[in-house]
Amino acid sequence: MRNGIRFLGVPSTCVQFEPRSAEFVVDQVRSPGFRLLELFPDGRYSTEVIRTEPSSASFSTSAVG
C-alpha cells in the first residue's frame, strides 16, 4: 500500500523467469498464472493468484525477436 492505494501485481501468463538471474533462465518452480478479482457492490473485493498447471512445452532460448 502506498499513499492509501493498494497496488496488486500479477504473474505473467507466459513462462516465468528465474528471479534475480543475470542470464535468461526459466523458473522451474513458478508456473504462469493470473489474478482473479471479485468485486462487491459495497466496494469490497477479494483477490487471489491462480497458477496454471506446469507445462512440458519447450521453446528455443536462441530465438530473437
- What is the radius of gyration? 16 Å
Average predicted confidence as pLDDT: 83
Strand content: 15-25%
Number of domains: 1
Specify the biggest β-sheet: 2 strands, antiparallel
Order of adjacent strands in the largest pleated sheet: 1-2
Order of helices and strands: EE
General description of the model:
Helices cover 0% and strands 22% of the residues. A two-stranded antiparallel sheet has the order 1-2. It contains no helices and two strands. With 65 residues, it is mostly beta strands. It has one domain.
Name the features.
single chain, 65 residues, 22% strand
Brief write-up:
This protein is 0% helix and 22% strand. It is mainly β.
How are the SSEs placed, and which strands pair?
Elements: E1 33-39, E2 45-51
Antiparallel strand pairs: 1-2
